[in-house]
């Protein structure tokens, strides 16, 4: 796996910026309670060398009851409606939100994201502590991060991960995957009725403040994998090789599947298991029970197969470190991005079920040679090479370059 180097710029430039410019020593992460979005922010924080010096603020969207039908509204409006419903005594059942682990990510206590308070803090501490780096991800965070930029433009540098759909000049930098611009491609245009094209975003090519990636940003850099390899050595190192890791996500609106894919995957794994020394299978929180039940029933009787039951420490990073090959369902951009950054063989099941821009993502992986469709005819001991995805480190480099243009730098 190609190592990630965090200080790519010349030492002389960095040193001169620290002497004559402003130095960033801290970061604020604006999250939305979704692990996939927040992990992208934390991955970028790690790649910038600010791990352990970040605070997590979270935009809390009302959940449960009628709120499950109101996710298309802006968070601020939904909160006003919730208050209105409570005043006229319409019960709104609250749903528990499972946050990412603070211990694993070195995050401080999670606070409510308030743009005015964060902007005030940035202004009041600017002379003593320098500029504030703000990193946000997810639709619900857009209004908060853009407001921070508007309220304290001289004191913050705002990075928005995932395409905010409009008015990209509200942010200093936008980091988004290339497939978010699929609507502008000839194939994308063909799928949009002409009378809807002006409403499908993005409507224009990426500007100078847009950084395009192949997949999602993540935390699985070389340092994290070395630590995971050490932490999971006693459990995973003795396993017979090759070790095949199978990661199962869950269906989405643009990648739908059910028991049919589970049966197909079970059959294919049974056909290739002869070439494996060991097989480790993990499910995500999004995996439907009917899907996991089929795979457990069909594969758990094989002595080569271990299925993680969700109890105890999550072996995900250990699997990334010790696996010899991966099989991953096509729905998860995050899991595919992590696996494709290791340089190890990655096989995808269900790519033909993806639609719209997610089909374009699958196509780009195969065209770059970083992933192949699972056929059931593979020999898992076969090694093939490709240029691993390095999106997180490359995005971090672009952040450093943009900061340098402003006369700022990050002290790592």
Describe the structure.
- With 412 residues, this protein is α/β, with parallel strands linked by helices.
- The chain has two domains: 11-60 and 97-214 and 391-410, 3-Layer(aba) Sandwich (Rossmann fold), CATH 3.40.50; 222-373, Glycogen Phosphorylase B (Rossmann fold).
- The chain has 16 helices and 15 strands.
- It has helices spanning 11-20, 35-47, 75-87, 102-105, 115-124, 126-129, 142-151, 186-190, 222-231, 233-236, 259-272, 289-299, 316-322, 333-339, 356-367, 391-405; strands spanning 22-24, 27-31, 54-58, 111-112, 132-137, 156-161, 173-177, 210-213, 243-248, 278-283, 305-307, 325-329, 346-349, 372-373, 408-410.
- The strands form three sheets. Strands 4-3-2-5-6-7-8 form a seven-stranded parallel β-sheet, sandwiched between helices. A six-stranded parallel β-sheet has the order 11-10-9-12-13-14, sandwiched between helices.
- Strand 9 (243-248), helix 11 and strand 10 (278-283) form a beta-alpha-beta unit.
- Helix 5 (115-124) packs parallel to helix 7, helix 9 (222-231) crosses helix 13 (316-322) and helix 11 packs parallel to helix 12 (289-299).
- The chain is globular.
- The protein starts with 10 loop residues before the first helix and ends with a strand.
- It comes from Morus notabilis.
- One of its GO terms (biological process) is mitochondrial fission.
């Amino acid at each position: 796996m190609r190592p990630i180097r965090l200080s790519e710029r010349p030492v002389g430039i960095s040193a001169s910026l620290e002497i004559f410019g402003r130095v960033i020593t801290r970061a604020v992460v604006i999250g939305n309670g979704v692990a996939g979005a927040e992990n992208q922010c934390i991955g970028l924080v790690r790649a910038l060398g600010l791990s352990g010096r970040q605070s997590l603020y979270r935009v809390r969207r009302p959940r449960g009851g009628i709120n499950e039908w109101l996710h298309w509204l802006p968070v601020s409006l939904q909160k006003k409606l919730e208050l209105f419903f409570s005043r006229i005594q319409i019960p709104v059942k609250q749903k528990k939100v499972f946050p990412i682990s603070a211990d694993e990510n070195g995050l401080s206590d999670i606070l409510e994201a308030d743009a005015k308070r964060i902007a005030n803090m940035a202004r009041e501490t600017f002379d003593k502590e320098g500029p504030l780096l703000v990193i946000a991800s997810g639709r619900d965070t857009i209004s908060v991060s853009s407001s921070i930029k508007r309220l304290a433009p001289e004191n913050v540098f705002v990075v928005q991960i995932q395409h905010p759909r409009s008015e990209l000049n509200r942010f200093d930098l936008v980091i988004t995957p290339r497939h978010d611009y699929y609507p502008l491609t000839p194939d994308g245009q063909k799928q949009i009725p002409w009378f809807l094209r002006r409403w499908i975003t993005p409507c224009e090519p990426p500007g100078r403040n847009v950084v395009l990636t192949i997949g999602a940003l993540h935390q699985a850099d070389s340092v994290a994998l070395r630590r995971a390899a050490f932490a999971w050595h006693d459990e995973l190192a003795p396993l017979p090789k090759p070790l095949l890791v199978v990661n199962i996500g869950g269906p989405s609106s643009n990648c739908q599947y059910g028991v049919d894919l589970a049966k197909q995957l079970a059959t294919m794994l049974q056909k290739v298991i002869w070439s494996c020394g060991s097989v480790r299978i993990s499910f995500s929180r999004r995996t439907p029970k009917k899907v996991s039940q089929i795979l457990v029933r069909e594969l758990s009787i094989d002595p080569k197969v271990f299925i993680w039951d969700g109890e105890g420490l999550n072996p995900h990073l250990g699997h990334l470190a010790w696996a010899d090959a991966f099989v991953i369902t096509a729905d998860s951009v995050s899991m595919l991005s992590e696996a494709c950054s290791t340089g190890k063989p990655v096989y995808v099941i269900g790519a033909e079920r993806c639609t719209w821009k997610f089909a374009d993502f699958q196509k780009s992986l195969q065209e770059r040679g970083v992933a192949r469709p699972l056929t059931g005819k593979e020999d898992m001991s076969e090694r093939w090479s490709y240029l691993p995805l390095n999106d997180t480190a490359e995005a971090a480099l672009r952040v450093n370059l943009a900061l340098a243009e402003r006369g700022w730098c990050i002290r790592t």
